[in-house]
Design brief:
alpha/beta; 2-enoyl-CoA Hydratase, Chain A, domain 1; 6-stranded mixed beta sheet; 3-stranded mixed beta sheet; 46% helix
């Protein structure tokens, strides 16, 4: 049985449905290093859990996930003595999601931004509240959209629209996202949980091997693109973390002013 952690809460709904809640509501469930680690462990252990056929992923409070925690980002990204890694930790998170055989359903109850949007969109089905918003705001804090956004947005909405949204960081309403095909359904906020769980139950009651192998077959397309794009985009994101423009973007955000960017 999957276990809750310090940043994840897990409950079972019956019929093999596990609901995983990102649980840092005071930070709109921003991904801290601890949450990143717990998510990696979660995705690595789902298929070994005999009590689970389907996982629903959602957020506590009024948000789904606001992305990387900007409150600690400036200090983490400016460390000169951080040891070099061949592969980013983000690679392992995305790879872990794509390797899960059991269906992952995102229940986007509130804002999903940056890495939060990536986590939602790498799920197999995305149901979104009509009160929620979604977008990749990496560029708004001076970062390359490298944690999977450059992989999944073009797959879902095409390269032209992906560039429009990833180069501006614009947040989309649930209806806009559904109209673009970015998410499966937009649902009235009060019905989001019941309709998502109804769908999860419908999937959970199907022959499990047929469901999992069908998912794995379709994911071969996603994995092929991921293999071509993710490492490069993560490397470019890593470079952008060390730029003055990134530090200026974070300072401008904290001081609620327009950034003054120099291109380095």
């Amino acid at each position: 049985m999957l276990e809750s952690g310090s940043t994840l809460d897990i409950r079972y709904e019956g019929d093999g449905i596990a609901v995983v809640t990102l649980n840092r509501p005071e930070r709109l469930n921003a991904v801290s290093p601890e949450m990143h680690h717990e998510l990696q462990q979660l995705f690595a252990s789902i298929d070994a859990d005999d009590d689970t056929n389907v996982v629903v992923l959602t957020g506590a409070g009024r948000g789904f996930c606001s992305g990387g925690d900007t409150k600690t980002m400036a200090g983490r990204h400016s460390k000169a003595d951080e040891k070099l890694r061949v592969y980013s930790r983000g690679r392992h998170l995305i790879g872990g999601m794509l390797s899960v055989e059991k269906p992952l359903i995102a229940m986007v109850n509130g804002p999903a931004a940056g890495l939060g949007a990536t986590i939602a969109l790498f799920c197999d089905v995305v149901f979104m509240s009509d009160a929620a918003t979604i977008g990749d705001r990496h560029v708004n804090v001076g970062l390359v959209a490298g944690d999977g956004g450059a992989v999944v947005w073009p797959l879902l909405v095409g390269p032209l629209r992906a560039k429009e949204f990833l180069m501006t960081g614009r947040m989309l309403s649930g209806q806009e996202a559904a109209d673009l095909g970015l998410v499966n359904r937009v649902i009235e906020a009060g019905s989001l949980e019941s309709e998502t769980l109804d769908f999860a139950r419908e999937v959970a009651l199907q022959p499990p091997y047929a469901v999992r192998a069908t998912k794995a077959s379709i994911n071969r397309y996603v994995q092929a693109v991921n293999a071509q794009v993710l490492d490069a985009s993560l490397s470019w994101e890593r470079i952008s973390m060390r730029t003055q423009d990134h530090q200026e973007a974070l300072a401008a955000r904290a001081e609620k002013r327009r950034g003054n960017y120099q291109g380095f």
